[in-house]
Amino acid sequence: MNGFIVTANPPAATQEPVVSNGTWFPDMDPVKVRNACRLDGTVTADRLRPALMDAMLSVNAELQEWADEQRTRWGYACLANVPAPQMDGESAKVLYYRRAVHACLQADLAEAYRNLSTIPAGSGKADRVLEDLAIQVDQHRRNQRWAIADLLARPRCTVDLL
């Protein structure tokens, strides 16, 4: 047996137009999302676009009250205008937003793909793969929570029940 792993090539960039996100939250480029999240062609353009929109909607909903306050009370026209440190010429708030969307997307995709027929059968491999996927989903959800906390300038909190 060799260590050869087959991956599908991602679609051409022209097949994945930018996902518009209204006027306040930033648009998301599926090509950049694909690169940042290390998604290959097994996540087709037809699957990525609705999953990305769902992740954007989820994060937007969590931030809606805060965003409304930024618009109405402080008059900021978009997330990029909210005062924040700049990293490589970009607002840290926008970077946190993208990180939250990426983590939400990765968690959603891991949950959706865990019942693919590519999971190995026999010798308990399926159980190990499913356990690893559950851990990945938890890590992505944690990263989403942390990115949103960072964006809102709130402390991160991890609680374990004993």
Q: pLDDT below 50 for ≥5 consecutive residues: which ranges?
A: none
Task: Compute the number of strand runs.
Answer: 2
**Whole-number count of domains:** 1
Q: Strand-and-helix sequence, N→C?
A: HHEEHH
Strand content: under 5%
Q: Pairing-aware structural class of the strands and helices?
A: mainly alpha
Q: Mean of residue pLDDT?
A: 88
Walk across the major sheet and give the strand order.
1-2
Tell me the number of helical segments per DSSP (H or I, 4 or more residues long). 4
Rg is: 18 Å
Query: Sheet with the most strands?
Result: 2 strands, antiparallel
Helix content: 40-55%
Distance between the termini: 44 Å
The shape is globular
Report on the structure:
- It comes from Comamonas terrigena.
- This is Phage head protein.
- With 162 residues, the chain is mostly helical.
- The chain has one domain (17-151).
- 52% of the residues lie in helices and 2% in strands.
- The protein contains 4 helices and 2 strands, in the order H-H-E-E-H-H.
- It has helices at residues 30-36, 45-72, 92-113, 125-151, and strands spanning 86-87, 90-91.
- The protein has a two-stranded antiparallel ribbon.
- Helix 3 (92-113) packs antiparallel against helix 4.
- The radius of gyration is 18 Å and the shape is globular.
In a few lines, what is going on in this structure?
The chain has helices spanning 30-36, 45-72, 92-113, 125-151, and strands at residues 86-87, 90-91. The chain is an all-alpha fold and 162 residues long. It has one domain.
